[in-house]
Write a structure and sequence with these properties.
With 228 residues, the protein is an alpha/beta fold. The chain has one domain. The chain has helices at 15-22, 79-91, 97-108, 115-130, 148-158, 176-181, 210-217; strands at residues 3-7, 26-29, 43-47, 53-57, 60-61, 72-73, 135-138, 163-166, 185-188. The chain has a 5-stranded parallel beta sheet with strand order 7-2-1-8-9. The chain has a two-stranded antiparallel ribbon with strand order 3-4. The chain has a two-stranded antiparallel ribbon with strand order 5-6. Helix 2 packs antiparallel against helix 3 (97-108) and helix 3 runs antiparallel to helix 7.
Amino acid sequence: MKKVAIIQSNYLPWKGYFDMIHRVDTFVFLDDVQYTTRDWRNRNKIKMADGSAKWISVPVTGGRDQLICEAKIDYSSNWANKHLEALRHSYGKTSHFDRYFPAIKEILEGSPELLSQLNRTLVERICGWLGIRTELRSSKEFGVPGSKDDKLIGIIREVGGDSYLSGPAARDYIVDEKFEKAGIGLEYMDYSHYPTYEQISEPFEHGVTILDLLFMVGEEAPKYIWAE
């Protein structure tokens, strides 16, 4: 059995994103679909000392009238420096900040042209830190036509998969019978099992970038994401 997950690339994703990657044999970035604004594609949250969670966003050009893989980063503002300063301000005194921050700084200051390129580079680096060996692919490699279920099934077939792991929100639109007819097993992620850990402030917030977890617990991070 070859299990596959397919989801849009996100900026510095939360721990659940990497939990999904870890649980499959092949993970496909769904980047040849419409770009959505005010979404996880170009932003995520970090914890603040006052207990709040702050958005950090990568500016892009072109808005919604483009595919994710076409979205170019807007360098008219010094957003990378602002993100790095925000991370340093929140996490600079944490136990493992100095271990991970230099690599994040190098990637952000590398000035990639495309948002999807930036997102994938960050995800690849973080997967390495977590010991994840899942194969990473991009949907634009295959050019599968269609939308929603038909596109997902086509991509799964392209990578030789026979089982699909979906995020729980997709229950609202996935037609289970289509996957059954295609001979593809269907499972949904459960994000309810994650334990808490000490953050820089209370209350505890699960829905922040995985950098929060890495800066706080370092190599122990996998224990807070998957049970194995």
